[in-house]
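Review box. Two proteins, two foldings.
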Amino acid sequence: MSLKSCFYYLINVVIGIILSILAMIAIRIAYCYTTKNNCLIYNTPMVINTWAFTDATTKSWEVLNMTGSAIDAVVAGCTVCEQEQCDGTVGYGGSPDENGETTLDALIIDGSTMNMGAVGHMKRIKSASKVAKFVMENTKHTLLVGDEATKFAIEMGFKETNLSTNDSMNLWKQWKTNNCQPNFWTNVSPDPKKYCGPYKSNLNTQSKPESNHMDTKNHDTIGIIAIDQEGNIAAGTSTNGAKFKIPGRVGDSPIPGSGAYAMNTFGAAVATGDGDILMRFLPSFHAVQAMKHGHLPKDAAQLAIDTIANYYPDFSGAVIAVNIYGHYGAACHGFDKFPYSIANSEQNNVSILYITCTKSKS
């Protein structure tokens, strides 16, 4: 065989090998495309939550490692934040309303059954997420609010207690001294940007809708997603709401599809930030539906955030999304950075991850 013939022979062999490899890749892609799980690797069990609330993540992860259910893991994590008063925005002793009272919101969703329970504007009961679980398991309702939610909790064996602390009352007194600034009133008299109430409606001074002031110390929610060893997904939230809210206000956290949403067939999402804006768009439901239609978790979260920012470019908020394989992503707007905490089967410890947020172009 001549040198030239040998060269062409080697070229043909190499081309044949490359074509074989490409054919194998094409066959695998075609096979994975037609299979239910698309050959994706499961990174479960796992737990993920908003903000750097790592004690909550650790507790949820411990529950999952003891073969606990996703629901139990979510409730356990939320309970830790309620007890530790995470950033003053979860649990007792934080975010007083205009009357100086602290009230609590919470939501628990079981993605395997689509059963859920929630409490809103609940007074004088510390364990909001546990009460939400009782609503889910012991009633045919989804959401109980106000004094009646408190009454229900007492009937279920919870103890009534004052949710205010010296810190929360001092915060409220400083707010009153500062002419009740900031507040959530608009189109009223006297001018709510200068004076305290009581107020009366004054539509002659009508102003256009705007976002509330939110920063990393007034983000008001822990949202947790857990996937257990059986592949069941649950999500939940807990918060004491926005500081100096108008009494009776319920935020996005206990609203299914807004604060959290979960479906075993597609995944789950949780949201945090300006609840009055967020609940107008049901961002958690939006993200789960986006994953249903094939979007990756990060893209699904970004779609939910972008939809809100198109209408309220100055709003602040974040969404975390997780699909059924334990793959996750997050998106945020208005903050500088958004931290979230995670533990999964890949790394048997809790990590804090950060993403950079989009901002208004104006």
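Next protein.
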Amino acid sequence: MDSVPLNGEQSSLISREQNVVISRVSSPKSGGREIIIRSKSLISEDVDLEDGKVGKDREKSISGSRRLKVYNQALLSGLAYCISSCSMILVNKFVLSSYDFNAGIALMLYQNFVSVVVVSTLSWVGVISTELLTWRLIRVWLPVNIIFVGMLITSMFSLKYINVAMVTILKNVTNVMTALGEMYLFNKRHKSKVWAALFLMIISAVSGGITDLSFHAVGYTWQIINCFLTASYSLTLRRVMDTAKQATKSGNLNEFSMVLLNNVLSLPLGLLLVIAFNEVDYLSQTPLLRMPMFWLVITLSGFLGLSISFTSMWFLHQTSATTYSLVGSLNKIPLSVAGILLFKVPTSLENFVSILFGLLAGIFFANAKMMERS
């Protein structure tokens, strides 16, 4: 009798003969009669069922681990973005107020220099890719860069005089100016919920200023100018972007290239402003520049400024623009609380309610914009 293989060859034999296994048995007594034994491939079904169950379990395990990995990446990138953006403002406030550093333009210049060194190094070693800076690209980008430098400088000036929480609330005015600019320049129409949120932002900014115990007219003036320049930067960037892409060799302009372009162009302009605002005399006399800890802090602020660009790109890659916008609004809450506690800001119940109202208005605005996009 032919023996039926029962080891590893069994699965290959069963796969070729899935329905029937035929054994021919010859006997001299039966006159050569053939007995055909038909049997269902029960072993095959058992093996297939077991393999299928294991395969499904394996797929579920792989899918679950993949989802967990994506969730962890999104959580980690979101946390990194929040820490970077909060720390940048708090460190700048610490340098300008606690150290009483009176050269905001020079601080901006040094931070941008740190960014140029880091981005250029990363591009040189091949970690990131950046576009070659051509004169054609620089001419196109120069108006954007002038606004960019003005935005950074006015932010430094306002932060020196205003507490972090009120700076956060007053920045909501930027959204109002941007919405009006979009209507005028791009004929964009916003829904009623967006305008309602913007109206609440204006109320919170006005009430916050009225109840601010540490109100400083110069600081508020710089902040309003900063809101105008920030809105102008956003709107101008949108108009210039397509032309700037055409001015590059690859036809594209990524975030790293924009960071490098903005910071490189800001160096000569910032140097001229340091001289124009007579910060050179102050820098030559201040003892802060002879303190190693001060250099460590302002270098950290330069790295934090650059990390905002990197972490925001990472966070957007892991999630969506909607989540990014909402987290950005929610991020203002711990920033405001930290600013009040760390710098011992005198506040009243009315001012605290105004700040909270402004933060909630920001969240309502982010939600209204999400609904508008959908």
